[in-house]
Amino acid sequence: MNHFNFKNGRLYCEDVSIKEIAEKIGTPTFVYSSATINRHMALFEEAFQDYPHIFCYSMKANPNLSILAIMAKRGWGVDIVSGGELFRAMKAGIDPKKIVYAGVGKTEKEIHEAIDAGIFLINVESEEELQTINKIGRKKEKEIAIALRINPEIEPETHHHIATGKKGTKFGLSFQQAKDIFSKSQELKNIKIKGLHMHIGSQITSIKPYEEALNKISDFIQELKQKNISIQWLNIGGGMGIIYKEEIPPAPSEFSKSILPIVQKTGCKLIIEPGRFIVGNAGILVSKVLRVKKREDKNFIIVDAGMDNLIRVALYNAHHEILPEEQKEGTITADVVGPVCESGDFFAKNRQLPILKEGDYLAIASSGAYGFSMSSNYNSRPRAAEVLVDNSRCYLIRRRESYLDLIQGESISPRLVDIEKKRKLF
Ligand code: LLP
Fold first, then answer.
1. Does the Cβ of 58 fall within 6 Å of ligand 1?
2. How far is CA 325 from CA 33, 148, 365, 389, in A?
3. What average pLDDT score do residues 259-281 get?
4. Average pLDDT taken over every residue of the chain
5. 374 CA closest ligand 1 atom index
6. 275 C-alpha to ligand 1 centroid (Å)
7. Residues annotated catalytic, as ranges
8. What DSSP assignment string belongs to 332-368?
């Protein structure tokens, strides 16, 4: 069931009118549906209920504290990639025993913080990182639980910027490197290798690359078993694709049916890190038409959201559906563009849309994942507000930034301005 629907020709999120939100909170504003998020989580829970597992929501997709609190409430953990994400996860009440930590460039400070927080597993991406963690473990007189991230070197059939499990990317270890690490793991006294991790890419709409990668990893685990090395956890990452336009991604139930027989052979418990699947289609970006600009050859619908709010179109040539807030007769073919000074600042090119005029609201669909989380202050534009809808209730879960927020932490060097002038300025 879709929770973004038209009722009497007006767009709603669950039982809340988008127009009402736009008028109260202003635009641009991200609007998320709790019901959709919970439904997506339930689909995963049902799909894997018969196999020992934990879910670690990949919080880079959308790290708002309220979204994380939904995860915590349902007993999910998170996949993190920085000290900042760890901080957010702890603030939102995520159980540290369900936090896994990936990333090729963890700093020593971040590793210390993760260990002190008592997280479940650090997903190690290089031998050099392993040595660093071992050294930190020695200092702390602790045995640190880790998983080795394997790069299975397969082709995940997605945009090259978001393909991570193929040859030549910076992620993970080759099978040979992992083998070498196991053979000298006795020397690493402050490390306990509990699992293997893979994450082959994002927005993957076929099960095939997962099967291919898992078969390789399963063979590797068998090889380890013959050497009396046992692995308890297998982390298969995230990457499950969603519908932006006409994709036909597998449902979690089909996904589990195909991969569980392979996972079962390994005897490992499962970790799954979906991000986009949970929140992508649970969010829209609501924006207002500032101007409809006509030129001899083209129409431009200039809206108040820009690439600073949602960079996916500029970065990956991604497709996002655009919905009017009000259904109307008649269409217009136009480019939908933002106010940012870049020609890459557009949401659609030559798109046929319902007639839109100045002051109308519209929604850029499928913006719940990698929308706000990749947003910036480019062109000194305050970042958007975020709203969470729950049935007929609606909560502001991040206020719109102010101009003062823009200069937070900045100062004018004393050499550039005298104190008196500075006082007047601020
Ligand atoms: N686990 C790891 C280790 C990851 O690096 C990622 C995403 C995930 C899980 C979750 O992947 P998901 O289920 O969301 O596909 N900004 C891009 C996506 C980058 C994904 C990075 N890693 C986009 O907007 O398409």
1. yes
2. 16, 47, 12, 16
3. 98
4. 96
5. 16
6. 6
7. 341
8. EEEEEE-SSSSTT-EEEEEEEEE---TT-EEEESS-S
C-alpha 213 – ligand 1 centre gap (Å): 17
- Per residue in 105-144, pLDDT (tens digit) is 999 999 999 999 999 999 999 999 999 999 999 999 999 9
Q: How far apart are CA 226 and CA 322, in angstroms?
A: 55
Residue with CA closest to ligand 1 atom 23: 370
The reply to whether domains 4-31+280-406 and 95-274 share a CATH topology is no
Measured CA to CA, the distance from residue 193 to residue 181 in angstroms comes to 10
d(C-alpha 61, C-alpha 280), whole Å = 8
* Proportion of the chain in helix, strand, coil states, percent, rounded to 5: 35, 25, 40
Domain regions of the chain by residue span: 4-31+280-406, 95-274
Q: Whose CA is nearest to atom 9 of ligand 1?
A: 238
Is residue 61 lining ligand 1, measured as CB closer than 6 Å?
yes
In the CATH scheme, what is the homologous superfamily, with its name and number, of domain 4-31+280-406? Lyase, Ornithine Decarboxylase; Chain A, domain 1 (2.40.37.10)
pLDDT in tens, 88-106: 999 999 999 999 999 999 9
Class of CATH domain 95-274: alpha beta
Is the CB–ligand 1 distance for residue 370 below 6 Å? yes
CA–CA separation, 310 and 365 (whole Å)? 11
